[in-house]
Amino acid sequence: MNKKNIGTPSHIRILVVEDEPELLELLSYFVQSEFNSEVVEAKNGLEAKKILEVDPHFDFVISDYNMPEMNGGELLDYIRSSHLPIKFILVSALDQSKIFQQKKITPDAVVTKPFFTEPLLSALRQLTEHLEIDSKPDQYTSASIDHLFRFGTVPYPLFAQLSDKKFIKVLKENDYFGIEELERFRKKNITHLYLESIHSQIFFKKQLDAFLALSQNKDLSHEELTIVNNDISLIIKEMVTIFGFSKELECSTKNAVDLAFHTITTDPAINGSIKNAKLGSGNPLILHSSRLPYLANYIVQIMGWESDTTPYKMALASILHDITLNHQIHAKFEFDFDSTKVAQKELNKEHFDQFINHPLKAANLASRFAEIPTDVEMIIAQHHENCEGTGFPYRLNHARIAPLSSAFIVAHDILCYYDRVGDQFKMENFIEHKNDHYQSGHFKRILIELILTSAK
Ligand SMILES: [Fe+2]
Ligand SMILES: [Fe+2]
After folding, report:
1. Are residues 227 and 198 in the same domain?
2. What CATH number corresponds to the domain at position 366?
């Protein structure tokens, strides 16, 4: 149970019941941004029932139908049989709403998933008119710092609460909300910041609609998406701490990864591949692909090769480059410097072929998208080639490896080296390790730039 911002005495009290954590959070924000309300959250019918047993003074229950422990229908039965004067709005998939057609006990309103924001608002407005309650929200609406962090760049000014009535602006519109800010607020025990309600109405409606649109795709579960979101903050912190990346790099990469992730999850085939890769289940390839954009952008930046689109290209290439690999079979070879020799010894023919062909297979998958620049396909196809012409699948001569591909390959090498040595990582050791190998073309230029940057 979680209690949100408490409004003035004229507020309405709403109990929101939903088993999907991110949807529960967004629904609460959304309702709170539209109405002068106190919102209490429950993650299933049983938790809601327990709340109502000790505190029945709610004006509304907004509830999902399908939930573990106790569903929305059973919760409604409990409310009606206890004669609680609470309006009940069921947020339901279409087929569940039909259940109530034959029942005596019916909700006061049913809004159907997935696109329910407008119907929910109009149901609430109609029912609050009846209750003669002021539906004007407070001037400020709260949002958790963890939620705001997910969006990188701040969409509207954010305020901290000093006292009951006093709010002070802490971040301007378009400021970056990065790991440093998140840590700063956490250290001061600030868990929530505030948006002006006039902005939060637009912001949370957009967030909720985007979430619902994304959740339409059955191939990627909410749970998987949530785990990825949570892991991202840890990955950024690790990258910034170990490699000392600048705030600009952190900011541009995080925004690019977010954009890239949204691009690829709109496609069912890619989405299916991500699902097969078992997101969020300790899959080392996903961790590898999430760290890589930071290093790839770092190399591009020190080489002066960046443009407006390079962070996005590197983010896409990172997320997609190993997407066709099976993490249980192939991960250890992906991270090995002499991967082909070891893989040939240890894998059967089918799995070895899958490994050798994965750069081309992933590039092929990327080529199906109009939104994905052709550079990205090239980077993906070349990511296991090397400076000495002994890579795979084509053993390309260094002169045939594109500059952005070279940057990506070096970033990949750094990451694999880091995986081996962990916290002991030092760039000078990596440079020493690769000094004899990066002796031609773009690789040599990158090596020199790494030496110069590390020597500063
Ligand atoms: Fe790979
Ligand atoms: Fe890789």
Report:
1. no
2. 1.10.3210
Q: Which ligand is nearest to the CA of 391?
A: 1
Q: Who wins on pLDDT, 32 or 103?
A: 32
Question: Kindly report the CA angle at 252 between 249 and 257, in degrees rounded to 5?
Answer: 115
CA of 164 to the centre of ligand 2 (A): 51
Cα 320 to ligand 1 centroid, rounded to whole Å = 9
How many helices and strands in the chain, by DSSP H and E? Answer: 20, 10
Residues in the chain: 456
* Centroid of ligand 2 to alpha carbon of 285 (angstroms): 7
Measured in Å, residue 409 CA sits from the centre of ligand 1 at 10
Q: Please state, rounded to an integer, the average pLDDT across all residues of the chain.
A: 82
8 A C-beta contact, residue 108 and residue 84: no
* Ligand 2 center to 360 CA (angstroms): 13
Same domain, 155 and 185: yes
Ligand 1 centroid to Cα of residue 30, in Å, is 42
Instruction: State in Å: Cα 321 to ligand 2 middle.
Output: 6
Looking at the DSSP bridge assignments, the partners of residue 111 are 91
Q: How far is the CA of 390 from the centre of ligand 1 (A)?
A: 15
CA of 449 to the centre of ligand 1 (A): 25
- CA 296 – ligand 1 centroid, Å: 14
pLDDT tens digits, one per residue of 30-54: 888 888 788 999 999 999 999 999 9
Of 91-95, 107-111, 392-396, the range with the highest mean pLDDT is 392-396
End of a domain among 113, 135, 157?
Answer: 135
CATH at 76: 3.40.50.2300
The answer to whether residues 270 and 394 belong to one domain is yes
Between vectors from CA 60 to CA 54 and to CA 64, what angle results, nearest 5°? Answer: 95
Q: Which domain holds residue 55?
A: 1-135
Phi/psi for 330 (5° steps) reads: -105, -15
Phi, then psi, of 328 in degrees rounded to 5: -75, -30
Residue pointed to by tokens 């969020």: 280
DSSP annotation string for 103-172: -SS--SEEEESSS-HHHHHHHHHHHHHHHT---PPPSEEEEEHHHHHTTSB-SS-EEEE-SSS-EEEEE-
- Separation of 176 CA from ligand 2 center, angstroms? 29
Sign of dihedral through CA atoms 420, 425, 427, 430? negative
Tell me how many domains the chain contains: 3
CA 416 to ligand 1 center in whole angstroms: 11
pLDDT at 143: 87
| Among 216, 238, 259, residue at a domain's last position | 216
Q: Which ligand is nearest to the CA of 335?
A: 2
**Quick one: 99 and 148 in the same domain?**
no
